Amino acid sequence: MESPHSVSSQLVMMVAMAMTVIISPVLGQGDLKTGFYSSSCPKAEAIVRSTVENYFNKDPTLAAALLRLHFHDCFVQGCDGSVLIDTPSSERKALPNLGLRGFQVIDDAKSQLEASCPALVSCADILALAARDAVDLSGGPSWGVPTGRRDGRVSSSSVVSNLPGPADSIAVQRQKFAAKGLDDHDLVTLVGAHTLGQTACLFFRYRLYNFTATGNADPSMSQAFLQQMQSICPKDGDGSQRVALDKDSQLKFDVSFFKNVRDGLVILESDQRLWGDSSTRRVVENYAGNVRGLLGVRFNFEFPKAMIKMGSIDVKTGSQGEIRKICSKFN
């Protein structure tokens, strides 16, 4: 057993490490760097932050929506703002994206930035900054976001096929994340974003009544939790009924999600499968553990690193792409 002194020293070290993420200096991530707009548009990040905060104060559920927008953008053709384009055949109209929200936050921030710094700040960067601010406002960590992305000139619903799905096995999740340069640790860490937000009964009701077409419930679910979910999502009830992804604190960025994975108390099959694979289970255990005040510090340190890594997927920089004047339209 560790002595109180060694645990205390470990806590101090981890807090110090976490703080280095929060107050990170100018760091590069490929062709991106934090502070990219510090000279050309010094108020860029403050404008995004104030916009997100204004909307968040009226509707805290938008935090999860903004995180999801950034994730869905990056996983399809890279982090290039293509998910924001609004045409009949754009990514935004693909089935997995029909539930996306928060577009008005990005559009509002963009209009303010165009008034202050015309044709300088990309919609892709606004998405990345807004996701960071959403986490921070929800009680999670903050971090220096590497910026300098440019907006893509292509957005097609036909290429939206590789987004992780709610029934994906670990093998399928692993393949989808690996295709984007993300490993098992990144996978579990990024799925931890499910500490925020909701989903619809439609996407998990099969776990309650007919798992693997057996006519039975998913045995990995806690019995008491199963009964609770069956009361919220009746077999023939409204499939659009919303349920929190984190039953304990859907508006607070914390590690209760990982405890729920450990205890069979999560909604989505893909989330629960994290406990059934030895590699992903180790990461869940690390985040779910409670060691004398260390709860949450490890996750708060690792999540920004995973977000920075994800935010660098297939970015367009330099002379590639464009800087859109309106985020929903190509120039």
From TrEMBL:
UniProt subcellular location: Secreted
Residue numbers binding Ca(2+) 1: D73, V76, G78, D80, S82, E91
Residues that, per the record, bind heme b: H194
One GO MF term attached to the UniProt entry: heme binding
The keyword Secreted is assigned to this record: yes
Cofactors demanded by this protein: heme b; Ca(2+)
Record's keyword terms, sorted: Calcium, Disulfide bond, Glycoprotein, Heme, Hydrogen peroxide, Iron, Metal-binding, Oxidoreductase, Peroxidase, Secreted, Signal
Cellular component aspect of the GO annotation: extracellular region
Signal peptide span: 1-28
Catalytic activities: 2 a phenolic donor + H2O2 = 2 a phenolic radical donor + 2 H2O
Region (Disordered): 141-161
Family: Belongs to the peroxidase family. Ascorbate peroxidase subfamily. Belongs to the peroxidase family. Classical plant (class III) peroxidase subfamily.
Protein's UniProt name: Peroxidase
Species per Swiss-Prot/TrEMBL record: Perilla frutescens var. hirtella (Perilla citriodora)
